[in-house]
Predict the 3D structure of the following.
Amino acid sequence: MSANPLKPKDRMKIPRQAMPEQHAAARVANFSEVNLGLDAELAKQEALRCLQCAKPTCIDTCPLGVKVREFVELIVLGDYLAAAAKIREDNVLPAVTGRVCPQEEQCEGGCVMGKKVAPLAIGYLERFVADYEARVGQVGLPPGAAPTGKRVAIVGSGPAGLSVAGDLVQRGHEVTVFEALHEIGGVLIYGIPEFRLPKSIVKREVENLARMGVAFETDVVVGKTVTVDELLGEESYDAVFIGTGAGLPQFLGVPGENLNGVYSANEFLTRVNLMRAYRFPEYDEPVYDCRGKDVAVVGGGNTALDGIRAALRLGARNAYLIYRRSDQEMPARAEEVKHAREEGVQFLTLTNPVAFLEAAEPGWLGAARCQRMALGEPDESGRRRPLPIEGSEFVLRLSVAIVAVGTSANPLVQSTTPDLRTRQRDYIEADPETLRTSKRGVFAGGDVVTGGATVILAMGAGRRAARAIDDFLRAGGASWKAID
């Protein structure tokens, strides 16, 4: 029997609780988190909206299978620690996913309430309980099984790798995560700005994994420092999971792209996040000075929004988002687009750069030559194809341009691992359900398999891989079947 005292029709009358946030005029001048989180009163009011469906489709649309109905019921009861512990049964990074997961496409997209009213704010509630347990210092970590004596190496400490590690250590396996950079977290650390995902949150979740028994080693470049074959051989690991992501940037291939002041989004955001440009002048600013400058990002995804909003906070005079399609085709989250508009980002949609132009100072960016676009028939992505309008070119003055038009896999691990089958752009071939690769004992998942996607989809792949690796280890390798 539900603890909710309200009848379903009365629950439907409660409006979805708004997320408190910094005012745009204030937040554009700092890197503090934009969304401030629900308090206990707002969280309970939101939890009361849940219909406690007999067949909760929100769970079906969550890549991790989080038990939404059960943790929301615990919030109604006021047992926030138990609610957080319930989430951690399936999700080892709740404070992260509560902030950056596209819930509108996942759990909230499957919420029955969304057919008539606003869906339950599942992401807000997840963040609330994860932050609550941290605030009171009582994190409900799931128990681990008896040690199996089996050892697993995880290559890459992004969301896929961390998810695999958390699930496998609960199953009693000895797990070590190898990270090429000097901080753990992968894209969560170097790719997502502080105002969306504070680094302290990532570090907190990593510390929780360490408390569960996961070992971490930084500054280990697998493929250089050690190879996958060496991990399986002299290092005596029984299985390897590759979760190195898709960190190799793509460019536009237009003239002038090599000018000073033109960055890939990966480089720009890594300099801002990992190298602490967001804390200038405490840290020497490792990016070309944006203060008082005209800055543009090319692209329409979340990475593009992250880049241009970071540039604004670094002091850009004008901040442009250049996107070759219209608002309707833009893949970025609606909340991120809303925040960017409020902060003053100027959206130049149906526009495409055709060249970057040199400034009066040789070797430096001075402007971009852009062309207006019109939308034609849909292409292979399902979106309408952008077509150039003849005679529509114009020049946009710029000092900094950030290219955010996609990424591909870094080929280092693949190029040093014989028998590991890859496909276009060096993505690793892996079975979509078991994440097995063509190489015995080696599994792969996340962006290095699918291409750039979301944090939650990478974590979902990690969970599937953990189940398959556990089966493989417990069968002594007898269950191995490589991909066709």
User: Anything to note?
Assistant: The mean pLDDT is 93. The CA atoms of residues 20 and 37 lie 6 Å apart. The chain has three domains: 8-136, 151-246+408-474, 251-405.
